[in-house]
Design brief:
By secondary structure, the protein is of the alpha+beta class. The protein has one domain: Nuclear Transport Factor 2, Chain: A. The chain is built from five helices and eight strands. α3 (53-73) packs parallel to α5 (87-101). 26% of the residues are buried. Residues 1-34 have low confidence and may be disordered.
Length: 187
């Protein structure tokens, strides 16, 4: 659509008139509040209740979505809601919480699970192990005063995590999640 000079002038005058109507400028939001407002809250789904490799995969994808949310907001409850006595999960949540508790923020670092590949079938105790090829964005951690505390570059190779889950009380819980870059991917 082509804009004529007259139409452009009318729009500019209208914008100036509206700006002069005494509307107060919005208060500046803190970076954490702004990121929290922009973050998409991950949603659970029915597949997570499926007592199969498909259910474990859905839960693992949800976990990484919840980590993404936590990195942007500092809110770790969702990621921990699908972890049961998972030391690695609890340590990751504590690290994220500590940054935000001190008034800092995290930009980037979002993990992206490329796939969740089960190693075998669900065992008699409801357990299943899967490997997860993962890519993570570059990450910068800022202190409250805006200084950079930590920087992690994007790794084009990615890595592999091994997840162990257990199906109990109608839902999957991740009980272990560790980086295993040398793990073999199933065919």
């Amino acid at each position: 659509m082509k804009t004529t000079p007259a139409l452009g002038a009318v729009a500019a005058i209208a914008a100036l008139a509206l700006a002069g109507c005494g509307a107060a400028e919005p208060a500046a939001e803190s970076p954490a509040a702004s990121a929290s407002a922009e973050a998409r809250v991950p949603e659970t789904n029915e597949q997570m209740k499926d007592e199969s490799a498909r259910g474990m995969a859905a839960t693992t994808y949800y976990y990484f979505d919840a980590v993404n949310y936590a990195l942007k907001t500092g809110e770790t409850d969702l990621m921990l809601s699908v972890a049961a006595d998972c030391a690695e999960c609890e340590a990751a949540a504590a690290d994220i919480s500590a940054v935000y508790a001190d008034g800092g923020r995290i930009e980037g670092g979002q993990p992206k699970a490329q796939n969740v590949l089960p190693l075998g079938e669900v065992d008699a105790q409801g357990g299943l192990t899967a490997v997860v090829p993962l890519m993570s964005d570059a990450k910068t951690v800022f202190a409250q005063d805006g200084t950079v505390v930590e920087e992690t570059a994007w790794d084009s190779e990615g890595t592999i995590f091994t997840a162990q889950g257990v199906f109990e009380d109608g839902a999957w819980k991740i009980v272990s999640l560790e980086e295993t870059p040398d793990a073999e991917l199933p065919e």
